[in-house]
Amino acid sequence: MFDKKIDVNAPIHELISARWSGRAYDSDKILSRSEIISLLEAARWAPSCSGIQPWRFIVCDKSSNENSWRIALECLSPGNQDWAKNAPLLLLSCADTMGQKNNINRWGEHDTGAASENLSLQATALGLMVHQMGGFSVEKAINHFNIPERYIPMAMISVGYQLAEDKIPENMREREYSDRTRNSLDINFFEGTWNEPCLLYTSDAADEGLGVDLGGRRI
Question: Once rounded to an integer, what is the mean pLDDT over residues 170-178?
């Protein structure tokens, strides 16, 4: 995959910085069964509350089960279908809403997200591109895949190899080459209490008791 630089306030692992949600898939490259199992193993070893592993993934591999892959594709919104049709693998992540004692598990969706991120990072390590989509019909997915009522379809996930840069269609180039951006840390991360911007540096003796907030001011 081509490199899309990001701005960070401190070093992060290259698997995290390299992961991004592209759309230009190479339809001629399929995934091996070994690669698919590697992705699932990464998801399997995600953390979960009480270790109950509430995630379920429906694997729709075009090369081995084109019918299930086509059903998954049809669940997507038209805009997502336009490019996801070139991805050889579609996965549907689902979260169990119930705990081990049939009690409500309010952490199921959180833990399913963790499993999906594990899968995404493993894909990056394998040179694959992942795009998680909320733009799909939950009703269609439930009906077509016979999903029990206790499970919530969370995201449709496309996986595949990125199309060579010189082959990316003109109508996709602007979107594929757009800058990767995120909110600054102070918007989403708080120090000690709500809405108190997180500090880039905490105070210490060498700094004579001074710290620096995200605006660069001494405090």
Answer: 88
Is there a contact between 156 and 76 (Cβ–Cβ < 8 Å)?
yes
- Tens digits of per-residue pLDDT, 68-78? 999 999 999 99
Q: The tokens of 23 are what?
A: 């759309």
Decide: 46 and 118 in contact? Cβ < 8 Å: yes
Q: How far is CA 199 from CA 13, 157, 185, 203, 219, in A?
A: 21, 35, 9, 9, 10
Whole-angstrom distance, CA of residue 57 vs CA of residue 157: 10
Of 49, 55, 127, which is closest to residue 91 (Cα–Cα)?
55
Residue pair 95/112 in contact by the 8 Å Cβ criterion: yes
Q: Token pair for residue 161?
A: 């190899």
Query: How many CA atoms, within 13 angstroms, populate the side-chain half-sphere of residue 64?
Result: 9
